[in-house]
Amino acid sequence: MKRTSFGTARCPVARSLDEIGDWWTLLIVRDALRGSTRFSDFETGLGLAKNILSARLRKMVADGILQTRPSPDRADRHEYHLTEKGRGLHMVLVALRQWSEANLFTQGEPITRMRDKRTGAPPRRLVLHAADNTPLAPEDITFRMEKFAADPHG
Amino acid sequence: MKRTSFGTARCPVARSLDEIGDWWTLLIVRDALRGSTRFSDFETGLGLAKNILSARLRKMVADGILQTRPSPDRADRHEYHLTEKGRGLHMVLVALRQWSEANLFTQGEPITRMRDKRTGAPPRRLVLHAADNTPLAPEDITFRMEKFAADPHG
DNA sequence: CCGCCAAGGTTTCATGATGAAACCTGTTGC
DNA sequence: GCAACAGGTTTCATCATGAAACCTTGGCGG
Fold first, then answer.
1. CB-CB under 8 Å, B133 with A128
2. Which residues of chain B between 11 and 30 are close to nucleic strand D, CB under 7 A?
3. How many domains is chain B built from?
4. Do the domain assignments include residue B127?
5. What is the CATH number of the domain that holds A134?
6. Is residue B28 part of a domain?
7. Per the domain annotation, does A145 fall within a domain?
């Protein structure tokens, strides 16, 4: 009945889907990374119903992905800004974007592509590297159950 | 009323969410990358209802993320294997996993972590690089509307 | 060759999430 | 003072999700 929750899953992938695995959250982050801060920015950029947007923004603030700041020009309003946690989702968006570009578009279709602001060149593809900088394929990876300890390198 | 579709969006992020942006698809890919191939593998690994699993597998086959192969031991059954397109989602899972590890776990919590199979060490964090290998932050990126042309480097 | 069991689904039905449209509320511009 | 507008909330119909029951096919023990 109730949508199953992964909020306490031991698998990080499952747990992350609990916070951002719905239809709109990542797109809100995408727009926020490109400068959207106001309710109407998101509304027009995404074309979603106000009630849904309202609910999502509220949840994202509660989850620490966005934070509200008083609007500079209107005392009764506020803006939505990404937290560091929210900005951290940039890499997820890049990964999704690169997969999508490689698999979901056909020749000649209009597409919004990512470019290096200085040079106009496309960024490199993401690659997972081992500690010694050799690339790691899915088969080169194993999984281990541990007790969480924060990575000192961030 | 109907869940809005991003299947024809020009933004790759939006379009990808149309195919994999639901609660179970990425977790099915995760299990498939770790070796699950049979219906019951996914069912027990994920703990989801059979009807939902059935619908997801069917959609993922239709989308070219999974493909069915005849089972080696039972003529009337088949296995589900990732296509190249499906394997390409590995990087998305890694990005989600790293974000989750950095933001959703507290000290001492049990967690399933990714390790280099040879050395047991954790992989490096993903970083987006420019063509000249300098790191690119979200602010260093711009977006351009183009007609899609496949990247010759894959 | 008969009956039973398990894998791999499909059907049914109650409930929660989604989305369109209408409505509310406080400012600001005129 | 009043209309317009941003920024929501409420209402209601519809869709998707999930639990449980049911079906179907092929081994297999006797």
1. no
2. 22-24
3. 1
4. yes
5. 1.10.10.10
6. yes
7. no
**Which stretch of DSSP H or E encloses residue B142?**
strand B141-147
- With 0.70 as the threshold, say if the pTM is over it: yes
Q: Could you read off the pLDDT of A64-104 as tens digits, one per residue?
A: 999 999 998 888 899 999 999 999 999 999 999 999 999 99
A-chain CB neighbours of B56 within 8 Å are none
A153: in domain: no
In this complex, is the C-beta atom of A104 within 8 Å of any C-beta atom belonging to chain B?
yes
For the segment B70-76, the average pLDDT, to the nearest whole number, is 86
B133 and A124 in contact by Cβ < 8 A? yes
Q: Which residue has the higher pLDDT, B101 or B76?
A: B101
Tokens matching residue A104: 């979901």
> Which residue segment(s) compose the domain that B47 sits in?
12-140
Q: How many helices (H) and strands (E) does chain A have?
A: 6, 4
Task: Report, in ranges, which bases of strand D sit under 7 Å from a protein C-beta.
Answer: 6-11, 13-21, 25-27
In 3D space, the residue among B43, B36, B48 whose CA is nearest the CA of residue A5 turns out to be: B48
φ and ψ at residue A141, rounded to 5 degrees: -115, 145
